Amino acid sequence: REHLKNIPTLADNPIRTEIIEAFFDKRNQHNNELGSYEEIGFEEFLMVMSHFRPPSIKTSAEERVAMRKQKVCFLFNMHDTDGDGKITLEEYRKAVEELLSESGSIGQEGARAIADAAMLEVASTNMPNMGPDDVYEGITLEHFEQILKNLEMESRMYVRFLDMNTANLRCGK
């Protein structure tokens, strides 16, 4: 975690903590385990980085669908911090507050109100027949996929390595 915290460009990201924790989340290692690693090795690091691989010109339609599914699951896992299969109102509030508080123009209460209104909108869309006493448990992966269905992320959710002299790049000790 300390190594990732020392990446200068990551320091400016409002969801830096979620990104770093995603590297240690066992769900992102394609083995469907719950929990978190204390530290990760090179293979685990690469497994998480694979979620950020952009499609190439040769990527087939089926591969694009699979890449999208992996990226959506990765994003979902990032915000479902307790691993219960739902992004709860509290988890959603935390993400919205972190994103909006970085701008400085909206305070914590304003961010909280925006998160609450957005969650209410999601609830009414995903469960249109909710009664006044019904409780919306949270956003499931299925609902999350539906929310993001029109967002083109396959070529946007990627990592670029800028200003790197690859001649001096070595792996290992």
TrEMBL record:
Keyword Oxidoreductase: no
Record PROSITE patterns: EF_HAND_1 (PS00018), EF_HAND_2 (PS50222)
Key word Calcium present: yes
Location(s) in or outside the cell: Cell projection, Lamellipodium; Cell projection, Ruffle membrane; Cytoplasm; Membrane
UniProt xrefs under Pfam families: EF-hand_1
Molecular function terms, GO-annotated: calcium ion binding; protein kinase inhibitor activity
Top-level division of the source organism's lineage: Eukaryota
Membrane topology note: Lipid-anchor
GO cellular component assignments: cytoplasm; lamellipodium; nucleus; ruffle membrane
GO BP, sorted A to Z: cell differentiation
Domain annotation EF-hand: ranges: 67-102
Keywords: Calcium, Cell membrane, Cell projection, Cytoplasm, Differentiation, Lipoprotein, Membrane, Metal-binding, Myristate, Nucleus, Protein kinase inhibitor
Protein family according to the UniProt entry: Belongs to the calcineurin regulatory subunit family. CHP subfamily.
Protein name per UniProt: Calcineurin B homologous protein 3
Organism this protein belongs to: Gambusia affinis (Western mosquitofish)
